[in-house]
Design goal:
470 residues, alpha/beta, two-stranded antiparallel ribbon, 16 helices, 11 strands, elongated
């Protein structure tokens, strides 16, 4: 702009400051605005900075106010006058064209940044010694780039808001869905329990049930290998209870298969179930030490892959929170965990999936007579409670009965009846349920077969409901 005339390539850029000056409602239009550095023409960038500074002062965007801002930036009056006078004629400045110019400038910024990231990665490959470090650094840069592309203004007029309720994803366990109508889409659900309560087994059942509905399911299994998870789901798929089948072969137990002691008839049923599981729309990443950013990028890629295959990804499972590494370690575990739960909630909202993340409870539960967990048993529970839409607390009394048996304790007759009665019990406590009921839901659980069912499910054996097998 030094010669006082606009070149053809600068006209679209010039529409942006011109619209800010001449078009009423430009800043209220809801479009994304460029930064001064996004202008190829340095003079237009400086003028745009003056416009932004004037707006921050809550002054009208007039010639006089802009000249004052430019003088403070070191411009003389003649240069400032020419810069403003050289803008397109107000009669030819339209809001939609100015918004399109803003989008083009932002797209140009992203293209340049993407080129820079790729160039740096290629240069680093010539000398890099730690390939994993390079990959993580490049992933962070690309994630930041993606975040910039999603910064559109999100204000919605109340009158324009879509009608309807929060979309829900049925869990396949009727007694749970009666309370919450399923997992909320676009939200974070936390499932928490002590070690051995059956958290991973329960998550595997939910994964199986959702995939059986035809929805895509992705899981970051940070504790259990993929094959182990498949074996658990296969046992759950093979489960048939046995209300009227006392003479049939017992249901396959995944541990028997892994130890190589499964009978031939059970093995046949187990293999048939496993083949059915492998055909379901599920993807599992069992690599350890995943960072939050890697989880975010992996979830985006999984959703894209499912879409290519014609499946809609609806569920993302994370097992478990404590195994995710923050992108930047603060040295304060409470803050780090808060960043992770906040990030998972953002992933749920961005991808419009239900995120179901497992969490460990503190050892404080073990010191109480009543071992049922409470919200404050969540490690660093403050941030988890804040970010989660729903929190489920898990309790399986048979776990403690098994430990008593291992210690050699000899229960009396009444205790034996209680143990027999609770053998197949599993409780899901809705400790937090945003907009819903706080309620404890008893379920049937055959932990060795990875089976979690409603109490009145036809697959629940009569023995578990107080009856007797024939």
């Amino acid at each position: 702009m030094a010669d006082g005339s606009l070149h053809l390539g600068e006209i679209s850029e010039a529409l942006v400051p011109a619209a800010a000056m001449y078009v009423p409602g430009f800043f209220e239009a809801g479009g994304r605005l460029p930064d001064p550095d996004d202008f190829d023409d340095v003079g237009l960038g400086a003028l745009w900075q003056a416009i932004l500074d004037t707006q921050k002062r809550k002054l009208n965007i007039t010639r006089i106010n802009l000249q004052r801002e430019l003088r403070e930036a070191g411009w003389d009056d003649n240069r400032a006058f020419k810069a403003i006078a050289n803008l397109p004629d107000p009669a030819y400045v339209k809001l939609d064209e100015a918004m399109a110019a803003c989008e083009e400038m932002l797209s140009r910024r992203l293209r340049r940044q993407a080129q820079r990231v790729c160039k740096e990665a290629l240069n680093d490959l010539q000398t890099v010694h730690n390939v994993q470090e390079l990959i993580e650094r490049t992933e962070r840069a690309m994630s930041d780039l993606a975040a910039q592309s999603d910064e559109a203004d999100a204000w919605v007029k109340v009158g324009d808001a879509k009608e309807g309720r929060t979309e829900r994803l049925p869990t396949g366990v009727d007694d749970l869905d009666k309370v919450n109508h399923g997992l909320p889409i676009g939200e974070l659900t936390i499932g928490a329990g002590r070690t051995g309560m059956g958290k991973s087994a329960f998550a595997a059942t939910i994964m199986l049930n959702v995939a059986l509905q035809g929805y895509g399911v992705a899981a970051f299994s940070l504790e259990m290998q993929t094959q182990q998870l498949i074996n658990r789901m296969s046992a759950a798929e093979a489960y048939n209870g046995g209300r009227l089948s006392s003479g049939r072969s017992p249901n396959p137990q995944y541990d028997d298969y892994e130890r190589g002691v499964m009978g031939q008839e059970e093995l046949s049923r187990f293999f048939a179930a496993r083949e059915a599981v492998k055909r379901l729309p599920m993807r599992i990443d069992d690599r350890r030490g995943r960072t939050l950013n890697q989880v975010r990028l992996g979830a985006r890629r999984a959703k894209m892959l499912f879409e290519r295959e014609g499946a809609e990804m609806k569920l993302l499972v994370v097992d478990h929170l404590g195994k995710i590494r923050p992108d930047k370690v603060s040295g304060n575990r409470h803050l780090d965990l808060g960043d992770i739960t906040e990030g998972l909630a953002e992933i749920a909202s961005e991808l419009q999936v239900s995120v179901f993340a497992l969490a460990q409870l503190s050892r404080g539960v073990e010191s109480r007579d009543d071992k049922r967990p409470m919200l404050h048993d969540l490690r660093e529970s403050g941030r988890i409670e804040e970010d989660a839409h729903t929190i489920w607390l898990f309790y399986r009394p048979a776990y403690y009965d098994e430990r008593s048996k291992d210690r050699g304790e000899d229960p009396d007759e009444g205790e034996q009846r209680r143990i027999a009665r609770e053998r197949f019990s599993f409780e899901v406590d809705f400790a937090k349920n945003r907009g819903g009921r706080i309620q404890r839901v008893p379920l049937f659980c055959d932990i060795g077969c990875n089976a979690f069912l409603s109490k009145d499910d036809k697959r629940v054996p009569l023995l578990a409901t107080g009856g007797a097998l024939p």
